[in-house]
User: What shape does this take?
Amino acid sequence: MAPASPPAAHGQSSASSVPLRPLRVILGGYGQVGKNFHELIQTTNSPVRVVAIARRAGAAIDEKGLEPNPRFDRDTPLSTLIESIEADAFVDALPTDIKSGEPGLSLAKAAFKRGLHVVTADKGPIVHGFADLARIAHGADRQLRFEATVGGAIPTLNLVEHGFAGNPVDGIQGILNGTSNFILTRMLEDGMEFGAALEEARELGYAEADPTNDVDGWDAAAKLTILANAVLGVPIRFADVERQGIREITSRAMRIAKDEGYAVRLLASVDRETGRASVRPRLIPERSGLNVGGVLNVVRYRTRYGGSFTVTGRGAGGRETATAVLADVLSLPRPPQA
Amino acid sequence: MAPASPPAAHGQSSASSVPLRPLRVILGGYGQVGKNFHELIQTTNSPVRVVAIARRAGAAIDEKGLEPNPRFDRDTPLSTLIESIEADAFVDALPTDIKSGEPGLSLAKAAFKRGLHVVTADKGPIVHGFADLARIAHGADRQLRFEATVGGAIPTLNLVEHGFAGNPVDGIQGILNGTSNFILTRMLEDGMEFGAALEEARELGYAEADPTNDVDGWDAAAKLTILANAVLGVPIRFADVERQGIREITSRAMRIAKDEGYAVRLLASVDRETGRASVRPRLIPERSGLNVGGVLNVVRYRTRYGGSFTVTGRGAGGRETATAVLADVLSLPRPPQA
Assistant: This one.
């Protein structure tokens, strides 16, 4: 088998000789993303130590580093862990509260105050507090990273951060919610009605009991808000996104579109010049690169000098999203050994 | 109009207060890529100064920085410029010699010896000397960057460098040559024969008088060699790539494939585990994300823990490729003011 170590990296040349110690992480949430992140650290033998975890049912603490699936035998709340445990970064893998961004927003502020970096898979704090958090992070000389909030394992934010110096992105279009895209795909390809396709999405675990986040466009609007703020530098708020969901779409409308060579997709788009952002069903030519099927996500970046390019992949999944969290954590500066 | 400045960047927090001076660049070659790079520096007001240029017809030197399209009134060869001009980086925008990698390979070595960083749009030195150059760059604590060698403006190498810590890429597939893809698209969609489609590609400026680089798979094999070495860390040589071009494909074979729901594409692929790399015509399902039309390029990365994702865009064009060169140059550390 060929070597599994990271490739001889393009552009890497720093010949640092200071011994570094592993990054110590406080983890909030232990659902699919948090647990997979913890397991990936072990699987990949990454220089990261999870020194404390808090989830709804309890907390676990070990300054030497916790094994995955520890006993949650403490009742220390996450805010207290952040206040009291020695660590380098706070990783927010809590469920997103799209309405308020809490508790992630307050926890991120508390973490910066303690001198921690913040990596979040939770969209809430970024959707509701990007400008604030970016300012606080800057003032504290700490990093705020949130690659996992948009597009799961698909590179979105980091891609633009590193790849597009001198070539600004002027517009973004995309399909940012896999669940609604799965439903539309079943309607388009198999003539199902919305209700039946939603039921199937539930059975497959793609849709939650209350599907409103997905099918009414809230989730896509949250991700679009993040892209607009972080990639375009357009300071729109969540409430500014024009939003229309897919509940009203009929299989008949779908069939008519298909006969004309189109698909109906829930398209998110934002333009730097106008600052306008919307999430709504749109007709997309069947052969367009934006017309991806099933649970795929797609993001198209319109750059000022380099044309457009498009990134496609699975936008969700605990393991996939955890890879984005890990990449963000591994990009943080590691402290020298004491 | 919304601000054109770079967006409030995800993850940026360094509050450096040391005044930095512009990067001084020696530019080799002044064709479409070199000239567009020079013009983009001005258009984008980037902190980069082109202090010397050498092209076949002469050289231009101005330590205060040359304007685009200067008078090439010197006859100093590029190697002498690298030996004698005070600069921070050498940018290789020379035409690629796919057989030898020269003169880019020797010039890059000379540049490192002088303490310059090297950014190249020229595939030659990377295809023929990646391991050597990476080692020399590392020893000199200088950077070697070559985003522009693969996929024009599409992020390929930088994307993986920054986005995939902890989640190695195990395989790559792609369409890496826009000219041959244009020809195949005309054959597939319009029933043209190879010769007629090639003629049209020539008329449109997509194909050169001698089309062998494009239609016999040399160009795609060169790019695949770069991806294999730099992204997968698989040390294949250019000659190791199994290579078959598209001259033998008939419109009849194309039609049969199409009737079965397939397209014929010149697919490049490499696998980390086996180390096997090939460029050859393959049947691709019409609805696959790898089936892109016209002059588009596509690269699909199979990651170990995060599934696959696919990047699509224009893989060529002077302006597009120049954006990748500029991004690489802007990623170099800027020296402090004297």
Q: What stands out?
A: Confidence is low (pLDDT under 50) at residues 1-15 of chain B. Chain B touches chain A through 86 residues (CB under 8 Å). The longest strand of chain B covers residues 262-271. Chain B is about 35% helix and 20% strand.
